[in-house]
Amino acid sequence: MKLILLGTTGYHPNDRRQTACLMLPELGIVLDAGTAMYRVRDYLCTPQLDIFLTHAHLDHVVGITYLLDVVRDKDVRRVTVHAAADKLAAIQDHLLAEALFPVKLPCEFRPLATRVSLPSRGWLTHFPLVHPGGAIGFRLDWPTRSMAYVTDTTAAADAPYVDAIRGVDLLVHECNFPDSLAALAGRTGHSVTSAVVDVAQKAGVGQLVLVHVDPCAEGADPLNLQHACSIFPRTILGRDLLEIEF
Q1: Where would I find the beta strands (DSSP E) of the chain?
Q2: Residue 92: pLDDT band by 50, 70, 90 thresholds?
Q3: Fewer CB within 10 Å of terminal CB in the chain, N or C?
């Protein structure tokens, strides 16, 4: 199964990265709808599109407003946006307020169920994360593989969500800052490198991919990947348009 990292930064895009958006193209599944959402059009190959949102912060939802172009001239019969009921209300009342976005989008909004069936005999479950304004993470399971997506939280090896992601083949986890910016991470509800790799190790995951990288970070290795790999060797730094088979 292929996962494409369409957007791998947070807060705002830069010349290298768009904000949070992941896609499983063969299943028509998108996780978060940041500024990279426009790229979904290039990979859309299913008659349905299911978009699952972790929370309603703008860097994760602004791409909902791009749907008119994402599905234009595509044979898409259903688009469903799944999120917690209060987050859907915030999106509809504010982001899609007529004064800001006066055109009706070609989608339905559905409060996220406890367990959602996925194509290929899969299912999606969610779990709470600690983040200002509230957020959730996702676990996706199929008979022969599994993955989890954890974004916008302050990682800790003793965090309750570690049990929810235990044993997944692939963990995509936010890592906004290097260890040197731990104080800033704490103030903003984000994670640093050592804490994230500790989570991966504690949860016994197969592979770790770091995303939601600080858009102001400079250099090719903003998170000290060498240090991360010394703790959890199966760690890679995500980048936009990276394709991962799992």
Answers
A1: 2-7, 21-24, 29-31, 48-52, 78-83, 108-111, 115-118, 122-129, 135-142, 145-150, 170-174, 207-211, 235-237, 242-245
A2: very high
A3: C
